[in-house]
Design a protein that fits this description.
The chain is of the alpha+beta class and 186 residues long. It has one domain (10-181): tt1808, chain A, CATH 3.90.1570.10. It is built from 4 helices and 12 strands. It has helices at 15-24, 45-64, 92-95, 120-131; strands at residues 31-34, 37-40, 67-70, 74-76, 81-83, 87-91, 108-112, 136-141, 146-154, 157-166, 171-173, 179-181. Strands 3-6-7-8-9-10 form a 6-stranded mixed beta sheet. A two-stranded antiparallel sheet has the order 1-2. A hairpin with a 5-residue loop joins strand 11 (171-173) and strand 12. The mean pLDDT is 89.
């Protein structure tokens, strides 16, 4: 005796889960979801150079903290957002088998702007990172040639802002990093 087929309706499908499932199964280029819109990611070499420069400067401290620095997936549950930051510093133990982490599980999130992402990194993503508890959000604005560090997150945004600092000016990353970040090669 076989079971009767179960009927489904579109009302039973959770749009957030369906969208996040889809983004994880796109073949080819990596993509993220920004306020419900799937955005392909195709960073330029200048963009990658800035991100790599930050990784190089933080590498020793990241190892000492037993963390990883990568561009893994960040889920923002309860929203239509699935971010792929340029850099997220996360505890190695959390990253081991995770498909995605939450912003509050990061130690630092870094976003490097591109001509194509307009207000996404400096406005939309910053607001969401604060809302979801990312403790530090570093914005490297290649168009304005500045760096700004946002800290002390809350539901209405970050309450502490250090910057903007012109490229060429060092920027102090607070603990657990405690390093001066040189910005002259961004």
């Amino acid at each position: 005796m076989s079971a009767a087929p179960q009927e489904y309706s579109y009302q039973q499908v959770d749009p957030e889960l369906a969208l996040k499932y889809a983004i994880q199964h796109i073949n080819g280029d990596r993509s993220e979801i920004i306020e419900g819109v799937i955005e392909p990611m195709s960073p330029t070499w200048g963009h990658e150079t800035a991100a790599e420069n930050i990784r190089e400067q933080l590498r020793e401290r990241i190892r000492a903290l037993d963390c990883l620095a990568g561009s893994g997936n960040l889920d923002l549950p309860g929203s239509r957002n699935w971010y792929v930051p340029d850099i997220a510093v996360v505890p190695r133990a959390l990253a081991q088998d995770a498909k995605a982490l939450l912003p509050d599980q990061t130690l630092l999130v870094v976003e490097v702007t591109s001509d194509s992402n307009g207000d996404t990194d400096p406005v939309v993503k910053r607001r969401r990172y604060a809302e979801y508890g990312a403790p530090l959000d570093l914005l490297v604005d290649r168009q304005e040639r500045t760096c700004t560090l946002f800290s002390t997150p809350g539901p209405l945004g970050y309450t502490l802002v250090d910057g903007p600092h012109s490229f060429g000016t060092s920027l102090r990353l607070p603990e657990p990093f405690g390093v001066e970040l040189a910005t002259d090669r961004f």
